Amino acid sequence: MGCICGKVSVTEDSRENTRERQLNKESSDLHVPRVISSKREESFRVKNRPGSGDLRVGVVEKKANNSKRVRDDHFEGRKENSEVVVVNFPGMGSVPKAMEGEQIAAGWPSWFVAVAGEAIKGWLPRPSNSFEKLDKIGQGTYSSVYKARDLTNNKKVVALKRVRFDNMDPESIKFMAREILILRRLDHPNVIKLEGLVISHTSCSLYLVFEYMEHDLTGLASLPGVKFTEPQVKCYMQQLLSGLEHCHSNGVLHRDIKGSNLLIDNHGILKIADFGLASFFDHHQCAPLTSRVVTLWYRPPELLLGATHYGIAVDLWSTGCILGELYTGKPIMPGRTEVEQLHKIFKLCGSPSEDYWRKSKLPHSTVFKPLQPYRRRLGETFKDFPAAAVGLMETLLSIDPAIRGTAALALKSEVNT
Q1: What segment(s) does the record annotate as region Disordered (predicted)?
Q2: Consecutive H or E run containing 347
Q3: Residues of the chain with pLDDT under 70
Q4: Same domain, yes or no: 220 and 95
Q5: Alpha helices in 36-137 (DSSP H)
Q6: In the prediction, which pLDDT does 94 show?
Q7: pLDDT at position 59
Q8: Do 215 and 264 form a contact (C-beta atoms < 8 A)?
Q9: H/E stretch holding 197
Q10: Same domain as 219, residue 313
Q11: Contacts from 397-400 at CB under 8 Å and sequence distance 24+?
Q12: Are 272 and 262 in contact (CB under 8 A)?
């Protein structure tokens, strides 16, 4: 569904600026504080699980006392003088030897099949000479993004994201395999589509082939003189919530909803992109997740307070931030540090109730609990917004994640009807 207000119209210079953010986390993170602190030294360790072909990767934080703290999406523990973490991502890992041989015969390199065989099951690699690079539109530490033409598909314009694997590092390949698995599971008009994979046989690189989108929400909002109308806001919110509902109903948490990850084409179609921090989740699973996700300005209070058991509510909080941003034209809670971010949240949304503090038992609650409670000021702060928009923000930006509801419920709100 495109925006009812019509096609997006911008100058060529503006288009160059907005498209540079496409599918490029490293570039977009220059605008917002990064999720992971640069003050800690990180390394990666991996090992096969005994009796299983699956792998799971953890981040090993090296401490001053030479101990190590292990972090990944489903495990956090303390290991003294440990170098190996045995962990497991569901549905990932190697494939049976017979299938591995078939994948290698089909053109996949052995170093990729050994780690990501499950992620590429049933797919054939695209030949690199079937694409013509037109322009480099993004550059990050480990990836580059190109605008390209698919020579085998009526010269369709696509985006090629090249990911480099230094020394064929299996840990890096493993994280990319999870992103590929997630993208393959999703199929929705408001979720970016992975159209194929290209393996470079001259270097340890993988190209992800995506549909090409001309803009992103942050770039459009930053254009001089641009102010989204109420019909535009409604249109974008409907598409964002529709895409999110599809992700959540398929067991996927995005965990990095923000304007630069919401791509928009010239017809007003919005697609959720960049699933690098996304994770599979199960309502019935009790395994802990990492709290070090979601870009700071869009991170919900429970993650800032150290929660490791959470669900779809984290994406809904970020969506509430996006709704406010669509009307104001700028981020509504731009904190510089985690402490400042929590302060901004409490000033706008009020501090948690005593009952919430007591029941949640969040790790950082004793450190960040304010001495005096904050009153909720969201309604008066955004009193010039349409009443329906404020009502939806009141729900999505609830301090208690249990009150935020679901994307499906938000789609039924007055804003989207």
Answers
A1: 12-34
A2: helix 338-349
A3: 1-94, 167
A4: no
A5: 97-105, 110-116
A6: 60
A7: 38
A8: yes
A9: strand 194-200
A10: yes
A11: 397/317, 397/320, 397/321, 397/324, 397/348, 397/349, 398/349, 399/301, 399/345, 399/349, 399/350, 399/351, 399/352, 399/353, 399/356, 400/352, 400/353, 400/356
A12: yes
| pLDDT single digits (tens) 297-337 | 999 999 999 999 999 999 999 999 999 999 999 999 999 99
Q: What is the dihedral of CA 70, 71, 77, 80, to 10 degrees?
A: 10
Contact, 244 vs 315, CB < 8 A? yes
Inter-axis angle of helices 387-396 and 313-328, nearest 10: 150
SS3 content of the chain, % helix, strand, coil (to 5): 35, 20, 45
Helix (H, G, I), strand (E, B) or coil at 112: helix
The string over 114-125, giving b where at least 16 C-beta atoms fall within 10 Å of a residue's C-beta and e elsewhere, is bbbbbbbeeeeb
Shared domain check, 199 and 62: yes
Coil/strand/helix, residue 175: helix
pTM: 0.78
Binding residues for ATP: 161
pLDDT of residue 218: 94
150-156 LR contacts (CB < 8 Å, sep 24+): 150/209
Confidence (pLDDT) at 181: 94
Q: Can you say which residues are annotated as belonging to the binding site?
A: 161
CATH number at residue 395: 1.10.510.10
- Residue type at 87 in one-letter notation: V
In this structure, are 372 and 346 located in the same domain?
Answer: yes
Shared domain for 188 and 283, answered yes or no, is no
> Is 4 inside any structural domain?
no
Q: Which of 388, 382, 366 is nearest to 325 (CA)?
A: 382
Question: Which of 164, 341, 185 is closest to 278 using CA atoms?
Answer: 185
Residue 373 forms part of a structural domain: yes
Given 178, 212, 246, the domain boundary residue is 212
Q: Which two tokens stand for residue 183?
A: 């993208």
Token readout for 99 is: 């299938």
Residue numbers annotated as active site: 256
* pLDDT recorded at residue 354: 85
Both 182 and 331 in one domain: the answer is no
**Cα dihedral 274, 277, 281, 286 in deg (nearest 10):** -170
pLDDT of res. 400: 95
Measured CA distances, 101 to 40, 113, 115 (Å): 40, 9, 13
Which pLDDT score, from 0 to 100, does residue 112 have?
86
